[in-house]
Amino acid sequence: MNKIDFRLRRAGALLAALAAIGGGALISGCGGGDSSTGGGTTGGEVNAQQEVENGIETTEQGLEEAKEQAEESKETAEKSIEEGKEQLENSKGKSKKKFEEAREKAEEKIEEAKEKAEELLP
Fold first, then answer.
1. 72, exposed or middle or buried, with CB in 10 Å at 0-12, 13-18, 19+?
2. Average pLDDT of 17-33?
């Protein structure tokens, strides 16, 4: 789970950084209107916007991958838990069987001891 938390935190930090960079690019693009055309966008603004959009897409892909890995980890953990439960149940059955066998042997030894004691007593 720590690995997933780390990846989600890293993706969140990346998204925050991209948002800050994108916000700065947009604010700097809203400067004075010194252009003679009066409203056209410059190549720098378009590039900055494309970079922000690419960053957002990359972040979204990273988040999707992190979600998929988290799901896979969850499924693996659930399978491990089920296998552990099955092993525990199997070991309980084996332990019970061994206990029963040991008890039967102990009862047999007690009977043998009683018989020998009766033979030795007059």
1. exposed
2. 62
